């Protein structure tokens, strides 16, 4: 049995997922990641130690694809447990346009990419998580689960579903597996995209000032919150806002 803990991150190729993989890899964990973006996974693979990472191109909103990806993960793990699952996969762009123009197929894409994916991956992961001790799941929700912007219906609904799924799973899977959610606010992911889409932050003073913490969020803020929740043995069924305080500050239009 390996002496290292193992984490699985969905949506691992870019942004918060990529940063979370790199954070835990830097802590000596073995890392596994699923993503639909093969190019991003290829770049990420080159940054990880051989033998300590498994990166699989898979659509985690598709049941067959999840089953196939878990076949690879199970073979890679052998008899070792999975210690931590991070359900991060989602469509990053929350804007879907006016409600009356939103096609059912487009609505379903947002729901499947995040909420359905979290269900499918968690269902397959539970037997692997139960092999070890102190296993946990961290679902990546959003502050939009509790406060909305215009024309984000499907995204907001998917993240609200993530919140509900989190507490339902915490009650049902405990005490063997703890389940929590993180609600990121404005997190700058530009430096953590694949090379072809990478950008450097360019924030205005008022972008930073609207946060009581004094700045826009970084992907490291989420990765560190994941680490905290995994280690917090008396915390389960919770939804942690990681938003620099933005959701508790009244913002008035100029």
What does this structure look like?
- There is one protein chain.
- The protein is an alpha/beta fold and 254 residues long.
- 40% of the residues lie in helices and 17% in strands.
- The protein has 7 helices and 9 strands; from the N terminus they run βαβαβαβαβαββαβαβ.
- It has helices spanning 15-26, 38-46, 63-77, 104-129, 153-173, 205-209, 219-231, and strands at residues 6-10, 30-35, 53-57, 84-87, 135-140, 177-184, 187-188, 217-218, 239-242.
- Strands 3-2-1-4-5-6-9 form a 7-stranded parallel β-sheet, with helices on both faces. A two-stranded parallel sheet has the order 7-8.
- Helix 1 packs across helix 7 (219-231), helix 3 (63-77) packs parallel to helix 4 and helix 4 (104-129) packs parallel to helix 5 (153-173).
- The mean pLDDT is 94.
Helix-strand blueprint:
Elements: E1 6-10, H1 15-26, E2 30-35, H2 38-46, E3 53-57, H3 63-77, E4 84-87, H4 104-129, E5 135-140, H5 153-173, E6 177-184, E7 187-188, H6 205-209, E8 217-218, H7 219-231, E9 239-242
Parallel strand pairs: 1-2, 1-4, 2-3, 4-5, 5-6, 6-9, 7-8
Helix pairs in contact: 1-7, 3-4, 4-5
Task: Characterize the main sheet.
Answer: 7 strands, parallel
Identify the strand order in the major beta sheet. Answer: 3-2-1-4-5-6-9
Beta-strand share of residues: 15-25%
Number of helices: 7
The whole-angstrom Rg is 18 Å
Number of domains: 1
Shape: globular
Structural class designation: alpha/beta
Q: Write down the secondary-structure element order.
A: EHEHEHEHEHEEHEHE
Average pLDDT: 94
Helix content: 25-40%
Stretches with pLDDT under 50, minimum 5 residues: none
Provide the CATH topology: Rossmann fold
Q: What's the CATH first level?
A: Alpha Beta
Would you count the extended β strands for me? Answer: 9
> What distance separates the N and C termini?
60 Å
């Amino acid at each position: 049995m390996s002496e290292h803990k193992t984490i699985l991150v969905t949506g691992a190729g870019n942004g918060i997922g990529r940063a979370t993989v790199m954070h835990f890899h830097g802590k000596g964990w073995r890392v596994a990641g699923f993503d639909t973006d093969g190019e991003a996974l290829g770049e990420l693979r080159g940054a990880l130690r051989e033998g300590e990472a498994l990166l699989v191109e898979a659509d985690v909103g598709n049941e067959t694809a999840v089953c196939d990806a878990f076949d690879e993960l199970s073979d890679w793990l052998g008899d070792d447990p999975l210690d931590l699952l991070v359900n991060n996969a989602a469509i990053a762009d929350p804007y879907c346009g006016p409600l009356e123009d939103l096609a059912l197929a487009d609505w379903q894409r947002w729901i499947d990419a995040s909420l359905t994916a979290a269900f499918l991956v968690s269902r397959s992961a539970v037997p692997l998580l139960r092999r070890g001790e102190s296993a946990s799941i961290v679902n990546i929700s959003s502050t939009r689960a509790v406060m909305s912007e215009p024309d984000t219906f499907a995204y907001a609904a998917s993240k609200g579903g993530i919140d509900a799924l989190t507490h339902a799973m915490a009650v049902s899977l405990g005490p063997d597996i703890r389940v929590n959610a993180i609600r990121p606010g404005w997190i700058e992911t530009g430096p953590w995209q694949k090379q072809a889409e990478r950008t450097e932050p360019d924030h205005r003073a008022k972008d930073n000032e609207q946060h009581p913490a004094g700045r826009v969020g970084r992907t490291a803020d989420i990765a560190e919150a994941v680490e905290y929740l995994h280690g917090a043995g008396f915390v389960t069924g919770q939804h942690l806002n990681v938003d620099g305080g933005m959701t508790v500050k009244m913002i008035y239009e100029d």
